[in-house]
Design a protein that fits this description.
Immunoglobulin-like; mainly beta; disordered N terminus; 310 residues; 6% helix; 3 helices; 10-stranded antiparallel β-sheet; Jelly Rolls; 23 strands; 6-stranded antiparallel β-sheet
Amino acid sequence: MKRKLIGIFIVMLLIATIISVAETSRNDDQLDQSQEQFDNYLYLVAEEYWMAQSFKPTMPTLTRVELLLYEWNNVFYELTVSIREKLDGSDLTQITLEPEGYLTSPQWIEFDFPDIFITPGVTYYIVCSAYEGGIGAGGKIKCYGWGFCLENDSYPNGNVFNNNVDNNFSWGETSGDLCFRTYGIPNEPPLKPEIQGELNGKAGEEYSYTLVATDPENNDLYYYVEWGDGNITEWFGPHTSGEQVTASHTYAEEGTYTIKAKVKDIHGFESDWATLEVSMPKNKAINTPFLQFLENHPHLFPLLRQLLGL
């Protein structure tokens, strides 16, 4: 019966609550997602009671999280916080809090795990788990508490889930939103590429064009080229930021074409389009004795040859 009761949530006593904010341990990341409303309620986290909060990041690099935690009856066991893309999936990253015995009131505790690349707008889960706790000596509850707000829409981009003995050890959605903060590193899209190459050529001949683009975060880049005649060279790479890249194309017919190119970084952020207009005049046929003579003597009359387009 006791186990059944503590699996739902722990109601805090009406005591003076002291909430201390964890100091920021780094200055290259920014607050991304958060739910900080605390209603003096705690969800249990112990051996048979795991909790999770879903969220949708806006930044492509996740650096750390902070959780509002409390130790109930002098807990002395490890607490693990991990990030998952699926509740039943593997950990993308995780870190374990060693027992300190100092969370005598709800406090914001930082979990600064190894940075990971994630997809903005996709749902991820903060999973809080433990392998000890529950009912201790004398029937006392020994567990961590994770602060939450009873209002279901306090964080509109996520929900709360629990996995415990009462749910037959399967994940199920429950009420409220847990208190959390996620931090990340923002991403700027790459600059549009520069295109260099032959502006006036001959139809039927292959020409190479050089493309180069840079990324503010020096991320690797993929290139995409539309040749203006219906042909496309789809995303190719990755190439390092600032690296000169070559793409070749042959125009089958005479005409004026607009080459368009753009790049995207490894997080999917795309640049603006760059353009270059090229002209491919008709490849003149050699059908007179004089033109045949010029063709057979390529070093004679260079100015005349240029005027004739030979």
